[in-house]
Write a structure and sequence with these properties.
Elements: H1 38-41, E1 45-47, E2 53-62, E3 67-73, E4 78-82, H2 93-96, E5 102-108, H3 111-118, H4 121-128, E6 132-138, E7 151-152, E8 162-163, H5 165-176, E9 184-195, H6 198-207, E10 210-215, H7 223-229, E11 232-235, H8 245-256, H9 267-270, E12 289-290, E13 293-294, H10 297-300
Parallel strand pairs: 5-6, 5-10, 9-10, 9-11
Antiparallel strand pairs: 1-2, 2-3, 3-4, 7-8, 12-13
Helix pairs in contact: 3-8, 5-7, 6-8
The structure holds S-adenosyl-L-homocysteine (SAH).
């Protein structure tokens, strides 16, 4: 049973029913000897006593008795290993540990829209396993304005409204106060930014472990916030969206799938389109003959390069 600070009766916490709770590593419970976080186990290489590699741990299943490590073998086969002393001789987290624990903060006026997009399927599971963390922060929560106004008319006239610098800055300050010694990068999603590509996704994964994605809306944001606080501007293409949310989701999704452990194997993305400047070959799945169209012979042998 959990007790939330500041909540004294059950009804007040009703709103959290069915929701997921994330705990930062700094605040996580202390582990006893021979206890591990699942996030630390996933991605570890399983080796036999003779030094032979069995595969990589991809999941941990809780049974009524002991936990079971799910290991994906080199050939893609699944091996289930009971996490008991007879089977698991030694766990060395430090050596095999995922070096990356990527953290995203997405500054937006529409947190639900972003969260719905990034809480399903592969990225949702990666968050659940603790391989990465994605938090949305509502810029509107940081207005000092009593009507909670976040935008105003542009100087010099023109259509629409511009988001004010103050709520953006206060929101960013609050996020940065939790960043500790992380390597952070503040990115404004903008049609005027540098065109986004796979190289940029790799650079963001390699050079930072904290990405703050700022989503504009309406006519954009006050230029002075960009000058003072933004490290780079990224565009997802030469077209204009109503807001930065879809762009931020595209960036977060494409960086997340490069984080070790999110996909079952690095080959999942190193063989893919755009990784080294080429596009992937066409893909086929069952049946072999669909409406008279055959799967290319070379793919049927199982020995294609
Ligand atoms: N007036 C601006 C467009 C504002 S669109 C201009 O002409 O440049 C509103 C918001 O949507 C922007 O603040 C930005 O955050 C986001 N946005 C729109 N198109 C985008 C794109 N192609 N890439 C990334 N973000 C985009």
């Amino acid at each position: 049973i959990l007790k939330f600070k500041g909540y004294d009766n059950r009804n007040d916490v009703e709103c959290y029913r069915q929701k997921k709770l994330y705990v930062t590593r700094e605040n996580a419970v202390e582990l006893a000897e021979n206890e591990y976080f699942i996030a630390d186990l996933i991605g570890l290489r399983a080796i036999t006593e003779d030094g032979e590699t069995l595969g990589k741990i991809t999941d941990v299943i809780h049974t009524g008795a002991n936990d079971v490590y799910v290991i994906e073998g080199e050939g893609g086969e699944e091996i289930l290993l009971p996490a008991i002393r007879e089977c698991v001789k030694k766990v060395e987290i430090a050596e095999g540990r995922q070096e990356k624990d990527m953290k995203f903060h997405i500054m937006t006026l529409f947190p639900d829209m972003v969260m719905q997009g990034l809480d399903t399927s592969i990225i949702g599971r990666a968050r659940e396993k603790g391989l990465l963390s994605i938090e949305t922060v509502n810029i509107r929560d940081y207005t000092t304005n009593k009507h909670k106004k976040v935008d105003d008319y542009p100087y010099g006239g023109g259509w629409g409204c511009v988001m004010m610098a103050q709520p953006l800055k206060s929101c960013l300050d609050d996020i940065m106060s939790t960043a500790n010694d992380r390597k952070s990068r503040v990115i404004y999603m903008s049609p005027q930014g540098k065109p986004y590509d796979q190289q940029t996704a790799r650079r963001l994964r390699d050079e930072y472990d904290h990405l703050v994605l700022v989503c504009g809306h309406y006519e954009g944001i006050d230029e002075r916030f960009i000058e003072q606080c933004v490290d780079e501007e990224i565009s997802i293409g030469d077209f204009v969206l109503t807001g930065g949310e879809i762009a931020a989701m595209a960036v977060a999704d494409s960086v997340c799938r490069l984080v070790p452990g999110v996909l079952s194997d690095e080959e999942c993305f190193t063989g893919e389109s755009h990784w080294d400047g080429v596009l992937e070959y066409p893909q086929y799945t069952r049946p072999e003959n669909w409406r008279g169209r055959e799967v290319p012979e070379v793919l049927l042998s199982g020995h294609h390069a």
